[in-house]
Amino acid sequence: MYKFRTMQKHHNGSSVSVKGESRITPLGAFLRKWKLDELPELWNVWIGDMSFVGPRPDVPGYADLLEGENRKILLLRPGITGPASLKYRNEEELLANQENPQKYNDEVIFPDKVRINLHYYYHQSFALDIKIIIFTLLGKELKENC
Q: Number of helices and strands (H, E) in the chain?
């Protein structure tokens, strides 16, 4: 996946990023704020490695945690946006408000994203993808049963 580097290359931090943490570069904070860090992924869409809509690729190690039926989401082409991305579009801010961001991600956010992406797996359609793209552009959250 092509991306702009928004964090320092060498760090001993968590695998989840929290808004305002020191490993995010000043330019990276600007790119993330305006979602410009996603622009290089258009190349991935162009060459067929990604789709506009689909589950966001996780940081290394999380896909290994998927078991049973949940592994079906790995059959989906990763996307620039998706239903879980809409729900957690302010994930870094949400994590910044947690006492233990890594634990909250592992116990709350990651399982919820898996559930949302599995729902998308079973209900994906061109119309739903268009709706997700429109909601992404408008910055709105998608109701899960759409």
A: 7, 2
